[in-house]
Amino acid sequence: MFVKVACVGGGPAGLYLSILLKRQDPSHDITVLERDPEGSTYGWGVTYWRHLLDRLHEQDPESADLLDAGSVRWSDGVAHVRDLTTRHSGDQGHGIGRHRLLEILAARARDLGVRLEYEREVTAGDLPSGADLIVAADGVRSALRTHHTAHFGSRLTPGRNHYVWLGTTKVFDAFTFAFVETAHGWIWCYGYGYGPDRSTCVVECTPETWTGLGLDRASEADGRALLEKLFAHVLDGHPLLGRPGGTPWQTFRTLTNDTWHHGNLVLLGDAAHTTHYSIGAGTTLALEDAIALAGALREHPDIPQALARYERDRKAALLPVQSAARYSAQWYENLPRYMHLPPERMFALLGQRHSPLLPYVPPQLYYRLDRAAGQLEPLLRFKRWLGPKVARTVHARSLAARKQPGPE
Fold first, then answer.
1. Dihedral through CA 136, CA 139, CA 140, CA 146, nearest 10?
2. Strand order through the sheet with 162-168
3. What DSSP designation does 100 have?
């Protein structure tokens, strides 16, 4: 079956989809259209876990081997709270520079015969002609999705906290958290290595702390200097790095869509959904979207049927991830609730922040119940049964409240 595909957006999702489609059938005519120049990208490093690498090896061993070789690894997590430190061992994590990730995927796509066109802006009024399938992989601000917002049922829900995405020359040997108490409230960072001489460092705080510290008014250089001072104990004298052109503070926006396809246009990656950065799943979900869409197109020659299958499968797979992201964001928004605990207990509940039960159980009691559940199988089964029920009830109530008409 000959298929002509135009993929708008040269990020991980669009590039990986083009690789998979070409591997499935070299006769596919596939073009990736990216508005930015080749080699320019935002962000520092991205994270992923072993299970994703295993899936990528199944799909395309060549790019998976290069991804593996270009990544750094860690298996420990470290939390610094005031002047105390605790360390836990966990699953193996991986970090790779976003620039290197895109370089690997672009080279692999070219080798397979995909056309890559950079500095090529695509708008809803200037769609590629003759394409059987148009893939909107152009990010959370997708122009193609925005043009059909009413059809897709797009919703952007802003978070409460402010955050800034920075780099540093400090190479963290573990996934590192640091929580600092100031006169204006808590501010914290999470950092992870992604190369031999670089790490990502995300800094977050409440609106009250942000304004209290003057970060809303400070120049970018002055703001970074203040953050370097606050986190000097974990940066070890290394600087924080911003992006050329500026690194603004932001509030995270969670994107959802009621439907993911419209005619022969389909949403992929951040154009379809976003999940809070604190669970480190953005790149993983984008690549899994590409795997699912390629699989649906392989199994269903009829494109509308394939798009419906892709949407159904991915929406179901995303439900637990979206729930985890929602509770993770809430954990940080309610950070003072946990900071009176000893660091090792706080860190244990940090690892449990995806739980729908945690917000409704006193932290000390939850910690004891969680420890007991790990030793008593009936209690563990009860916790696994109760958690999803609480999550569904709370989610249903929030949807019902959202649908209530506001006051006149």
1. -40
2. 45-49, 84-97, 72-81, 175-182, 185-195, 198-205, 162-168, 240-241
3. H
Tokens, residue 195: 């190369």
Write out pLDDT tens, residues 53-86. Answer: 999 999 999 999 999 999 999 999 999 998 899 9
Please give the DSSP secondary-structure letter assigned to residue 369. Answer: H
Which residue type does 323 have?
Answer: S
Q: What's at 191, amino acid-wise? A: G
What percentage of the chain has pLDDT greater than the value 90?
81
The per-residue pLDDT for 350 is: 94
Annotate 193-226 with b (16+ C-beta within 10 A) or e (fewer): bbbeebbbbbbbbbeebbebbebeeeeeeebbeb
Rg (C-alpha) for the chain, rounded Å, is: 22
Spatial separation of the C-alpha atoms in residues 315 and 226, rounded to whole Å: 42
State residue 276's pLDDT score: 96
Q: Give this prediction's pTM.
A: 0.90
User: No. of H helices and E strands in the chain?
Assistant: 14, 16
DSSP-derived secondary structure letter, 358? G
